[in-house]
Amino acid sequence: MRSLRFTLGSLTLAFMLAALIILATGGSPITVFSALFKGAFGNLYAFGYSLIVYRHYEPPIEIFRTLNRATPLLLCGLAVAVGLRAGLFNIGAEGQLLVGALAAAWVGYAFKGIPALLHIPLAMLAGAVAGGVWGYIPGLLKAWRGAHEVIITIMMNYVAIRLTQYLVNHPLKDPNTLNTATPFIQPSAQLWVIEKSSVFSIGFFIAILLAAGYAFLMRRMSLGFCIRAVGQGAEAARSAGIPVARTLIITMCLSGALAGIGGAIEILGLYHRFYDQFSSGVGFDSIAVALLGGLNAPGIVLSAVLFGGLNTGAEQMQIETGTPLQIAGVIQAIVILLFGARYLKRRA
User: Fold this and answer.
1) Number of domains in the chain
2) Cα gap 348→341, rounded to integer Å
3) Measured between alpha carbons, how far is 29 from 35 in angstroms, rounded to an integer?
4) What is the rounded radius of gyration, in angstroms, for the C-alpha atoms of the chain?
5) Residue 34: helix, strand or coil by DSSP?
6) Using DSSP, how many helices (H) and how many strands (E) does the chain show?
């Protein structure tokens, strides 16, 4: 309950400060936030009326857009949460997402004649492996030389950006387009799209299953116990016989793999090819998702949907009211500051 009160209080404070900024610029917070909510979830009043009166069960398209935007945030949020459980601050989810997405795109277009039931898992496995390898490097340096994971993962982000940029501009570039992109993936590698919604695939449900797997890992498996024990105190865990170095490496591999799957789902379910720097900071937004969710699976799911709604609703808000969509970024930044301060206080 204390955690829930802090979460609600942080969100309230974030929206209050955003409202003050809107007032200072001559806008109306009620109008702006109404447009933000409508852009995120659609006209729920009209949907409820048609559901009750006409038995019309099709939700607004805005909900599908929000869930679609929430999918990579959810997976990268789980990636950050896994690291934080072990006391590791993984800032490299953005780079892990990029390399996972490129690996999935390559498997998606280079492997031909494979049935979808095999091609899709193979492409997602490629994304997980690529992201896991990208997480393995800072994990190894942390366990072997004591290098700080924040510095290493930040540097790995830039390496991932430049590496994928080079590959998609040269050896993996589609020769039939002027865009800096790979060829389109095969139809057998595309995630199945929900009927009547071209922007929402089964990727969201895969992310929900992985969130359930994360909860099971942390509460019902010995590896999860080791991760939590190392996060509570590495020296105490080592004294109890827990292999701290190996746990740190495995944790970073798991973290990178989750972010890599997030990138793979973006390619297989939405873009169907890899574009240069297609991610708009999802890996960084996921830090707020993990912190706001309290590092728990249900909380991370709700937090991802909230931030997905902020991202999609901000676009509609700007169109209707002329308010800059950076207001959503202000809300996210305040949440990160509040939860980051709380996390550091707990660690201290």
Assistant:
1) 1
2) 10
3) 10
4) 21
5) helix
6) 14, 0
Interior angle at CA 59, CA 56 and CA 62, nearest 5: 150
Cβ atoms of 218 and 81 within 8 Å: the answer is no
Which residues make Cβ contacts (< 8 Å) with residue 122, sequence separation at least 6?
A: 107, 111, 114
- CA-to-CA distance for 264 and 71, rounded, in angstroms? 11
Report phi then psi at 275, rounded to 5. -100, 150
Within 10 angstroms of residue 56's Cβ, the number of other Cβ atoms is 12
Considering only 86-95, 172-181, 312-321, which range has the smallest mean pLDDT?
312-321
Check if the beta carbon of residue 262 is closer than 8 Å to that of residue 289. Answer: no
The 3-state DSSP composition of the chain as helix, strand, coil percent (nearest 5) reads 75, 0, 25
- Please say whether the beta carbons of 268 and 100 come within 8 A: no
Tokens of 219: 């509460």
What CATH number should be reported for the domain holding residue 322?
1.10.3470
| Partner residues linked to 331 by β-bridges | none
Asked if residues 260 and 99 have their Cβ atoms less than 8 Å apart, the reply is yes
pTM comes to: 0.91
Residues 23-42 have pLDDT tens digits of: 887 888 888 888 888 888 88
Strand partners, 275: 181
**Structural domain of 85:** 2-347
